[in-house]
Amino acid sequence: MNLENLLNNYGEAVAMILFGIGFTNLLLQKNLIKKIIGLNIMDTATYLFLALKGYIDGRKAPVVTDGVQSVEAYINPIPSGLVLTGIVVSVSVTALMLALTIRLYRRYHTLDLDEISTLLKKEGK
Amino acid sequence: MDFVQNFPFFSILLSLFSGPLSSVLNAKWAKRVNAAVITVIGCMSAAVLVYVTGTGQEYVYMMGHFPAPWGNEIRVGILEALMALFFCVIMLLSMIGGSRERELELEESKQNLYYIMVNLLLCSLLALVYTNDLFTAYVFVEINTISACGLIMIKQNGRTMEASVRYMIMSLLGSGLLLLGICFLYDLTGHLLMSNIKEQVQLLALSGNYHIPLIVSLGLMSVGLAIKSALYPFHTWLPDAYGYSTLSSAAILSSLVSKGYIFLLIKIFYRVIGFEIVRESKVIHVLFVFGIIGMIMGSVSAIREDNIRRMIAFSSVAQIGYIYMGFGLGTAEGVIASIYHVISHSASKSLLFVAASGLTDASGESLRYRDLTGAGYRNGLAGVAFTVGSLSMVGMPIFSGFISKLLFAQAAIGHTYKMLLTLIALAISTVLNAVYFMRTVIRIYTPVPEGFLIENAQTVTVRQQPSKSAALVCFILLNLFLGLNSEPIIGLIQRGLEMFD
C-alpha cells in the first residue's frame, strides 16, 4: 500500500530526492560553485513540490480564455504565485553568494572553502 | 479604528523606505536618519505597547483591506509590541556604541551602505515580529539573512568574507528547510495565514489524519530556524562572524538577528501549530537535548578561546542553548523563561561586546586575552561595564541573567525526568560561565607588572569616547532595570503569551 502511494505521487518523491541532493551538496561540497549549484537544486526542488501541489489533473493555467469563468476549469493559482516569489528570493541569494565567491577567489585564488580557512590561519590575523 | 493601530504598519514601512533613502545620502546624514528612524519606531512601538496593554485585546490589521483568507495581515499583541520596542532600544544603543569603530574600520564611501543594511534589518525584524502570514515571514527571513550578511562583510578583510560565506551557507540550509516545512503545511491546510492554518491544524489533530506529515512539517520548520539561530551543532559560522565584524554588527547580530528567528519559532509553536500539538510531538525533546548540549559545549569552547571577542561569541552559543532548553520543557513557564532570556541575553551580550571593545581600545587594539591585563584600570567605565555584563551572564542577583536562570529552574520543577537534567545542566553551565567570565574580570583588574605593559596601551577616558561611554551607561542601567524590575516584564510576557492562543 505504501509503495502504491509512492508510485502515485512519484512527482513529490522526485522533488524530495532532489531536495536531499541539493541539501547535501550545499552542506558537504568543498567547492563554492558546487555549493551554489546545490543551493539552486534544493530551491528548485521545493518549487517543483509546490507546483505539483497546485496542479489539478486536466485543468488549465488560471488565465481566463474563451470566456470560461468557472473555477472548475483552472488549477490553484496560489502555489504558482508562491513559486514566483520564491524564485525571486533564490535569485537574489544566488547573486549574493556568487559575488562573495568572486571576491574570495580574487583574494585567495581558490574556490575551496577549507583551503581558504587554512590560508587565513597562515595569515594569522 | 484608533490611529495608534496603524503604527506597526508605519514602522515597517518607515524602516523599509529609509533604506533606499540612505543610499543617496552621505555617511553623516545617513547616520542621523538611521538614528532618527530607530528612535521614532521605538516610540511608536512603545505607544502600541501602551495601547495594547490598555485594551487588553490583540488586534489584526488588514493590509490592503482584503479580508482574511486572501489578504495579508499584521497581528499585534502585547508580546509583539514588547519585542519591537526592545529590538529598537538594543539596536539604537548598539549603533551609538559602535559609531567610532564604524568610522575607523569602514571605508568612507561605504559608510552609508551600512545604514541601508541596518534599516533593512530592522524592517525585516519588525515584519517577522508582526506578520500573521507564514510566507511573508519566509520572505522577511531571507531579507534578514541578506542584510545580516552585508553587516558582516562590510568590514573588508579575509576573515569577514570567509565568515559571511559560512554564515550564508548555514542560513540557506536553514531557510531551505523552513520553506519546505511551510510548503508541507500549506499543502496540508490550504492556508498561509497563521490563524487559518491553526484552525485547520486543530481539525486535523482531532480527526487524527495526516499526523506524520504534520509532525514532519513542524520538525522541518523547527530545525530550519534552529540552524539559523545557531543552535549548538550548527554554530560553526558564529565565532568568526561575531569575532571579526565591526563592533555594532557584532552587537546587533548576536542580540537581534538570532532572536528574530527564535521569536518566529515561538509564533509558529503557538499561533500556527498550537502548543498542545507541539508538546505531544517528539520535536521538543530534540530541541531540549540539543539545547542542553549547546549550554555546556558552548561554554567549553569559550573557555578554550584566547580572543576575547570570539570568547563572547561562543558564550552566545551557550545562551542560545538555554533558550532552546526552555522550549524543550514544553510548558508555558519554560517558554516564558525563554522569552525573558531572549531579552536579558540581548541586553547583556551587546553590553559585553561594546565593553570588550572599550577594553581593547585601551590595550592597543589587541584582542588577545593576555594583552588585556590591567585594562580595567586603563578604561574605567568599560571595565565596570564588562564586570556588570559578566555578572549578569553568570547569574548574580540584581542583574538580569539571574532572573532568567531562576525562571528556568522554576519552570523545570515538576517535570519527571527533565527536571534533574535541567538543574544539573544549569549548575554546570553556571560554573563554566563563571570560569571564563570571572577569569576575564580578574585579568582586567590585575595590575600590570612594571615594564610588562604592551605597546600602544593607553588610558581611555570617558571624554575621548563620549558615544561609547553613553551607550555603556545605558546598557548598564538597562541590565540593572531588567534585573531589579523583572516582575512587570514577566507579567507582560505572560499576558502576551496568553493572547497567542
Describe this structure in words.
The complex is a heterodimer of chains A (about 120) and B (about 500). Chain A has about 120 residues and is mainly alpha-helical. Chain A has a single domain, classed as Helix Hairpins (Orthogonal Bundle). Helix content of chain A is about 75%, strand content about 0%. Chain A contains 5 helices and no strands. In chain A, about 20% of the residues are buried. The mean pLDDT of chain A is about 90. With about 500 residues, chain B is mainly alpha-helical. Chain B has a domain at about 280-500. Chain B has helices at about 5-25, 25-55, 80-95, 100-105, 110-130, 135-155, 160-190, 195-205, 210-230, 240-245, 245-275, 275-280, 285-305, 310-330, 330-360, 375-380, 380-395, 400-410, 420-445, 465-485, 485-500, and strands at about 60-65, 70-75. In chain B, strand 1 (about 60-65) and strand 2 form a beta hairpin. In chain B, strands 1-2 form a two-stranded antiparallel ribbon. Chain B is about 75% helix and about 0% strand. The interface of A and B includes residues 43, 108 and 113 of A.
Highlighted features:
heterodimer, A: 125 residues, mainly alpha, Helix Hairpins, 5 helices, B: mainly alpha
Itemize the secondary structure elements and their pairings:
The complex is a heterodimer of chains A (125) and B (501).
Chain A: H1 2-8, H2 10-28, H3 32-54, H4 77-108, H5 113-123
Helix pairs in contact in A: 1-2, 2-3, 3-4
Chain B: H1 7-24, H2 27-55, E1 59-63, E2 72-76, H3 78-97, H4 99-105, H5 111-130, H6 134-153, H7 158-189, H8 194-207, H9 211-228, H10 238-244, H11 247-273, H12 275-280, H13 283-303, H14 308-328, H15 332-361, H16 375-378, H17 380-394, H18 400-412, H19 418-444, H20 466-484, H21 486-500
Antiparallel strand pairs in B: 1-2
Helix pairs in contact in B: 1-2, 1-5, 2-3, 2-5, 3-5, 3-11, 3-15, 3-20, 3-21, 5-6, 5-11, 6-7, 6-11, 7-8, 7-9, 7-10, 8-11, 9-11, 10-11, 10-14, 11-15, 13-14, 13-19, 14-15, 14-19, 15-17, 15-18, 15-20, 15-21, 17-19, 17-20, 18-19, 18-20
